[in-house]
Amino acid sequence: MNSWMKKLLQVLPEKQILTDLADRYSYSFDASFGEYLPEAVVQVKNNHEVAAVLRVANVYKVPVYPRGSGTCLSGGPLPVKGGIVMDMSQWPEKIEMQPEDLIVKVSPSARTSEINKAAEAYGLMYAPDPSSAHVATIGGNLAENSGGPRGLKYGVTKDYVIGLEVVTPEGKIIKTGGQTIKNVTGYDLTKLMVGCEGTLGVITEATLKLISKPPATQTILVSFSEVRTAGKAISKTLTSGILPAKMEFLDQACIRAVENFQPAGLPIEAEAVIIIELDGHPESLKVEKELIKGIMKQIGAVDIIIPKTVEEAAGIWHARKQVSPAIAKIKPTKVSEDATVPRSRIPDMLDRLNEIKRKYNVEVVVFGHAGDGNLHPNILCDKRDQEEMLRVERAVAELFQAAIDLGGTLSGEHGIGTMKAPFMESELGAAGVDMMKRIKNSWDPNHILNTGKIFSEQGQRLVLRHD
Fold it and tell me: Where are any strands of DSSP class E within 190-245?
């Protein structure tokens, strides 16, 4: 037994340290690509245990990889350098509502959907809604700055975090922000931590902002005979003065996949559909619904469906949620990306994706939160086919470059992790990446926290194959 393992046994109960191969293997992968075996897994249950583990790791310079439910799509919790996986999912769940202040205090293990459920009991809402909310923990959402369909109107995770408790790489417990909406005391370390992908500290508690739940919603399903027209309809809507809560895009391949997987009555002949959700006062929704119908007719929509009941509306949104599992049935492997572009450039990005599809002879389906420019191109493939995966790697690299060329970004909500690290400099430039590295070096001089993430190493490139 090595020295740092002996030290761990002194600071944690033995049953919370997993070293058997089978246990360690279950922590070696997430929802992205690659498998990396940790040397040990620690299941921490309070901030003092986190601090104790990090103090040991910092002394012995052992990498530590914080992990929630493992739903990450960018390799965020993967132990690429071995070391320790710090499992936060066994932490006792805490959701402490303070409705009078419109805030809630949560443990990192709280599931995102449960936070919103607790808020709804008071007529409130926790707005961020990543698709994995029913299984993802809030700690992972905070680390990745997760988004979701409601990001169009309400923003992403960082917009709802007003205070954090964080354990530093040296094992010190600090507080950032507080319980007030206004707080300009010193540097905004809260915003620095949210989205740092666990490379600067381990979040052990969060104070989140809540908002009033809108009294009514209205769903609208619009179909188009051309994908580019659907893209134009998005910009036209958003410049009309109407701000939907959600505005989702599905191309024909997605529509047909859903109908083959779990029929929902989507228009399979449409080249694309947009699903819109308006929310607010019932009288306002009546006006906005008619305005939306006018915009869509003017721009050339083939059909506009207004569900007559709550159940019909729920069916449309259920169909949207089935896209990911439905397309996974087409081929054994799917590479899920989230390149994001300015909303006016969505039609151009869709054109570029078609070019990439033809150039590399790969199967690409596109859906996503198009209202905020966040598209999810998914490349369907078979990772056992080495030649195909080489083409996929080249297609993904060109996809990223296309987003950057159009004034966009590598990631709207999935994070950088291992998947996109080789492309960071393309977007930020050498000086921009260097400044981030300086922050990392200052906070974590021994580079123990989530080592190998965000910043590419010499010669690193995207590899989706098993070389």
Answer: 202-209, 211-212, 216-224
Order of strands, edge to edge, in the sheet holding 64-67?
Answer: 17-18, 40-43, 84-87, 64-67
Q: Pick the closest to residue 424 from 397, 454, 449, 447 (CA basis).
A: 454
Mean pLDDT in residue range 135-160: 95
For 361-389, what is each residue's pLDDT tens digit? 999 999 999 888 899 999 999 999 999 99
Residue of 248, 227, 232 whose CA lies nearest to 322? 248
Per-residue pLDDT of 387-396, as tens digits, reads: 999 999 999 9
User: At 462, is the pLDDT very low, low, confident or very high (cuts 50, 70, 90)?
Assistant: confident
User: What gap in Å lies between CA 86 and CA 69, rounded to an integer?
Assistant: 11
- Counting beta carbons within 10 angstroms of the beta carbon of residue 228, is it exposed (0 to 12), middle (13 to 18) or buried (19 or more)? middle
- H helices of 304-385, in order, are 310-321, 323-327, 346-360
CA distances to 33, 76, 331, 462 from 466, rounded to whole Å, are: 10, 19, 18, 12
Query: What are the DSSP calls for 70-112, one per residue?
Result: S--SS-TT--TT-SEEEE-TTSPP-EEEEGGGTEEEE-TTSBH
146-172 mean pLDDT: 96
Taking residue 294's Cβ as centre, other Cβ atoms within 10 Å add up to: 12
Q: How high does pLDDT run on average in the chain?
A: 94
Position 455 pLDDT exceeds 80:
yes
How big is the chain by its Cα radius of gyration, in Å?
Answer: 23
Domains and CATH numbers, the chain: 3-87 (3.30.43.10), 95-212 (3.30.465.10), 216-325 (3.30.70.2190), 331-405 (3.30.70.2740)
